Amino acid sequence: MTDIPHHNTAEPQRDLRPSDVPAGATRRSVIAALGGATLGVAALGLAATQATADTEHQAAARPAAACVLTPEQTEGPYYLDLETVRKDITEGKAGVPLTLRVTVVDAATCAPLPQTAVDIWHCDALGVYSGYVAGGSTPDTTFLRGVQLTDSAGVAEFTTVYPGWYTGRALHIHVKTHAGGTVSHGTYHGGHVSHTGQLYFPEAYNTRIAALAPYRNNTVTRTLNARDGIYRNGGSSTLLTLTQAGSDLGKGVTGTVVLGIDPAGTP
């Protein structure tokens, strides 16, 4: 299943075809023409809401480093291999501050994996990704994208904002891990991709975030985790544990997650 941007209509999704890319377009000027099957965005009943709550409670209750291989999930259509090493990826984008801490461990031993490159990218509050001509974005923007190397404890930390949403997808952050590369001139080079996945947010927080500025200006119907087909395929294992900075949610949250990977794998 492929992501759908918020600015698309509700037409059926399809696989990206060469004919969808304008002649002479560069990677950063691609107008997203996306694939997959359109997910329902109708309001959920009590049963679906309870199922979401139960799943998220179970995910939060499990051990932090369970020595389990984290499920792979789709890269989606918005990846750019910029490989820019930076902690703060906001570039002035408005939103609730999010400190994201990703711990990477060896799924076979639970040992932390230092010097692993964690590569993340996500949309802004209105559902727009940088680097694509869509929803008013310009082709050469790079907001909300970046790479950090894990420290001796296997932790990579980012300063970003809580993501928004777009048609057919729950709130999420894309993530890759890279092993065996090097950093020079602020860019990660070489190595291989050892994991591709997505990170998700508890619905209790998503609902509260949606009521705040600038998220309340996003007019797209928000898809809950329980209605997102990608989330249902292993997303509960990468549900972030969130901690609010204070009594005012607008002041920010910290999100933590553990990724169990095979550092030698090339999935």
Give a verbal description of the structure.
- Helix content is 10%, strand content 25%.
- It contains three helices and eight strands.
- The strands form two sheets. The protein has a four-stranded mixed sheet, with no helix packed on it. Strands 3-2-5-6 form a four-stranded antiparallel sheet, with no helix packed on it.
- A hairpin with a 2-residue loop joins β5 (172-184) and β6 (187-200).
- The longest helix is centred in the N-terminal third of the chain and has 16 residues, at 46-61.
- The protein is globular, with a radius of gyration of 18 Å.
- It starts with 45 loop residues before the first helix and ends in a 6-residue tail after the last strand.
- Residues 4-55 and 57-65 have low confidence and may be disordered.
Write the topology of this structure.
Elements: H1 46-61, E1 97-106, E2 117-121, E3 145-149, E4 155-161, E5 172-184, E6 187-200, H2 203-210, H3 229-232, E7 241-244, E8 253-261
Parallel strand pairs: 1-8
Antiparallel strand pairs: 1-4, 2-3, 2-5, 5-6, 7-8
